[in-house]
Specification:
By secondary structure, this protein is of the alpha/beta class. The chain has eight helices and six strands, in the order βαααααβαβαβαββ. A six-stranded parallel sheet has the order 3-2-1-4-5-6, sandwiched between helices. It is globular. The two termini are 14 Å apart. The model has no long low-confidence stretch (mean pLDDT 94).
């Protein structure tokens, strides 16, 4: 956690990331990627998988070209197959939801705090997961990766969400799990909570590090 146990400005809005933040899908995706690359005789590269985490489709395509310049497969082919396998898993097992999410949204609604979703995932993919988990209508605002020009760590997606919420940045809290997401919040001058999803990295002391979504209630 940051230096203070509470935030100085009143929080009127929360912006959530999706994969790895409200849904426990990053680890699931990682395992699917590994299996897929092995099947396609591509050498799995951890730096590549971390590099595309929190990035939109266009940036991810360029990262793929960097690590696999001679691949006979395109990133789009592989991404579509990965997504389909994940959706097949969800169809059979449901969406894995992070601990504390439902407790937190109940708390936020009682406080009258608005909620936005800002995900690098495409609208079709994210909407399926949100509807499958029955949480699509929880959010006052939704912004998807294929609706922005620049992906995280550019703050564009958070700026759009803040504008649609019609709330000043100083009264908004971003919740993220990935390094690119944290940097996007920092680059946009947003207050930010980091809830690690198995990947740890150095962050400034201004970032509030928590263990679960449920703990966010203590900051507000």
């Amino acid at each position: 956690m940051g230096k203070d146990s509470s935030l100085h400005k009143k929080i009127e809005g929360i912006i959530f990331d999706m994969d790895g933040t409200i849904f426990d899908t990053e680890r699931l995706s990682y395992n699917i990627w590994i299996n897929l690359f092995n099947e396609y005789h591509l050498l799995p590269n951890t730096e590549f998988f971390l590099g595309i985490r929190g990035r939109n489709i266009n940036d991810s395509k360029e990262i793929f070209k960097k690590y696999y310049p001679n691949s006979r497969y395109s990133y789009l082919e592989l991404k579509e197959e990965k997504n389909q396998r994940l959706l097949d898993y969800v169809a059979n097992n449901g969406v894995p939801i992070k601990k504390g999410f439902f407790t937190l949204i109940k708390f936020l609604k009682a406080k009258g705090i608005k909620m936005a979703l800002a995900t690098s995932s495409s609208k079709n993919y994210a909407s399926y997961l949100l509807n499958k988990a029955n949480v699509y209508k929880v959010f006052d605002v939704l912004v998807f990766g294929d609706e922005v020009k620049h992906s995280k760590p550019d703050p564009e997606i958070f700026n759009i969400a803040a504008s649609k919420l019609n709330i000043n940045k100083e009264n908004i809290l971003v919740i993220e799990d990935s390094k690119h997401g944290i940097n996007a919040a920092l680059n946009g001058n947003f207050k930010c909570v980091w809830i690690p999803d198995g990947i740890y990295f150095d962050v400034p002391s201004s970032i509030y590090k928590l263990d679960s979504l449920d703990e966010i209630k203590k900051l507000i």
